[in-house]
């Protein structure tokens, strides 16, 4: 990178970076801001697209974005600061600081386990009750009650599994030990020393000048406002906001020891299981160490990358208020430009038509060489792919047996056939690398919403119409409303967006983009009297009240 900057000139480099980002805005749906800095000095800092659609207010380097899980590096820094002050021991059990935390879990889990996602603590963010209530305030103690007493998923320290729950507990420890709120401690010990005057704890009800509104893709690929979740539900795992320029201040403050000493930095950037340090993933790419982290929440997708090689440092920040933008790929593209590496440049592709019968030939489960599982399903003339429990993605035909991804058209899936013309495998291309997968099960998978061969007529649909009280003992005043629009079943829980559900069996419906199933319960007279709403492994029962 240093050679490129010296020989080509900073202006030329900035132009190349900007050209790439403009293309990402036009072809990858990137709405946001980006910053590139070399050794702490800005090479590019610019906004792209719109911060607030109704007024057309543009994104700028000063626009405030909600940063989701990038919050975790600030939570980790706060814990390390308390460790520097001798107030916490990183290897002490959490029961030392939260004696009310249920045992034996509180005695088995250490702060180090929480920081490195090796505690085995169940994930609260997948708890259906929390998902449905994410627009309502929830106290940290209430969040912890959803997982603290549950059995651990594995022995602490033996495995890596990303856990928002662990960082909620860390927030509680910060507040208990410091005697201050999480927000106040971060402001005093992190943001103020780093000069981060445009960062803080997010609150939608408070006025926040130059804040970006969060958007997601709706019907016909139009941007629509995302669900306005309540940030108390994310707290110390994801409730902060910042700007790309403030993130550079944060990066500079870290490396100049204005916030943490060298020992704390060593702790933060030492990789453990899953290549995770304290609040950062730490890995090697192109022979270079780099630390990175993303953040995703309704309406926002953000990423920070910290590179270090040959005595130079490179900081890349990409914030988007369109949550479908491929911010990680964009950040890697910027790094590749500066390193003189090959990278995928955003391009325009026009889908070709494929008969729905051919799409059905690709359906099935595929075991990938990276130990994950790829599911492919055809539905209503469209093809979808999903890796494990990640979000489902729509595919578009590019050529016979080759498809590109809807939200990142440089990623492709190519299906491989045998001598009898049967689909037996697939290859995924992404940014210069290939992942192979062998087909293990043919046909539509039960993991995904059922095939569209089950009709729903208006008369049958009307049987489900009504209001259902959901889990009154745990969530009083929380309801599910079901209506019919022709032969379409629409469901809406209190304070959440309405969603369309598709029939997958008798009295059973599911969502095409989310692992969510709604099953209606009938009484002895075969009348619908209740429901069971399932997401992942969590189920909430409901009673029909009208």
Draw up the topology in text.
Blueprint: H1 2-8, H2 10-27, E1 32-38, E2 41-48, E3 50-52, E4 57-58, E5 65-66, H3 71-84, H4 105-108, H5 111-115, H6 128-132, H7 140-145, H8 164-178, H9 182-194, E6 200-201, E7 215-217, E8 223-225, E9 240-242, H10 244-255, H11 262-268, E10 281-285, E11 288-297, E12 300-309, E13 312-320, H12 327-339, H13 356-360, E14 364-368, E15 373-379, E16 382-387, E17 393-399, E18 402-405, E19 412-417, E20 423-430, E21 433-442, H14 458-462, E22 466-470, E23 479-485, E24 488-493, E25 499-505, E26 508-510, E27 516-522, E28 528-535, E29 538-544
Helix pairs in contact: 1-2, 2-12, 3-8, 3-9
User: How many separate structural domains?
Assistant: 3
What's the mean pLDDT score? 89
* CATH architecture tag of the largest domain: 3-Layer(aba) Sandwich
**SS elements, strand count:** 29
Inertia-based shape: globular
Which runs of at least 5 residues are low in confidence (pLDDT < 50)? 446-453
Give a quick account of the main beta sheet: strands, pairing sense, barrel closure. Answer: 8 strands, antiparallel, barrel
